[in-house]
Amino acid sequence: MVELKTDTSIEAMRVTGQVVGRALTAVREAADVGVSLLELDEVARGVLREAGATSPFLGYRPSFAPVPFPAVICASVNDAIVHGIPDGYRLRDGDLVSIDCGAQLGGWAGDSAISFIVGTPRPADVRLIETVERALAAGIEAAVVGNRIGDIAHAIGSVCRSAGYGVPDGFGGHGIGRRMHEDPGVPNEGRPGRGMRLRHGLVLAIEPMVTASGHDGYHAAPDGWTLRTNDGSRAAHAEHTVAITDDGPRILTAR
């Protein structure tokens, strides 16, 4: 079931989204060579705690997961696409890191993700991140009243494919509101003019993912959560929670 949010609810979701944005900013600022992924998770926990927010990630257990998720961020490094569990791994010079974070505050959820490079950047990684950010921007630009879900999907996929990158099959964005995952699904590839029509009050988490090799294949790591590229190529991920309004798309997780 798709719930359209009132303007008051959208504003409340923006407050939650600001917490997510602050958490991601703090994590990015803390990320440096020698810092562990567990330490980054603690940084995000501190931001949520200070805001009086909780994490929709912590304890989350969808049907595929062997155990509840044990952290408040997903920390995916290099060939990890999404859902990386923070552990004692210490960041190295040149690592490509994707951080996904959510918050629950006042009954509303927010969800956002960023990718960045620790230390010395590789030009190929810079291009990968720039592309996933352009894909996110294109998806948001297509998120206007009167368009359809397929228009968002097509905009995202066109940017990723034209750059020669892979798009992991079966993963994409989602509706968001009282819960982190709501209807409708938002694929990262699709045909324009197809799918549900976008209306004022629909709120979506739009989240492109790209793999550097151009191949779409991935597999689950032994932890049952982390998804890694089959060929070991690097991946990047970006996401914003976006409200569709009569005045255009409104990013609720702006940083």
TrEMBL record:
Keywords for this protein: Aminopeptidase, Hydrolase, Metal-binding, Protease
Cofactor notes: Binds 2 divalent metal cations per subunit. Has a high-affinity and a low affinity metal-binding site. The true nature of the physiological cofactor is under debate. The enzyme is active with cobalt, zinc, manganese or divalent iron ions. Most likely, methionine aminopeptidases function as mononuclear Fe(2+)-metalloproteases under physiological conditions, and the catalytically relevant metal-binding site has been assigned to the histidine-containing high-affinity site.
Alphabetical list of InterPro entries matching this protein: Creatinase/aminopeptidase-like, Pept_M24, Pept_M24_MAP, Pept_M24A_MAP1
Record Pfam families: Peptidase_M24
Residues involved in a divalent metal cation 2 binding: 111, 174, 207, 239
E.C. code: 3.4.11.18
Required co-factors: Co(2+); Zn(2+); Mn(2+); Fe(2+)
Catalytic activity, reaction form: Release of N-terminal amino acids, preferentially methionine, from peptides and arylamides
Ranges of residues in domain Peptidase M24: 11-246
UniProt binding sites for substrate: 83, 181
Protein name: Methionine aminopeptidase
Gene designation: map
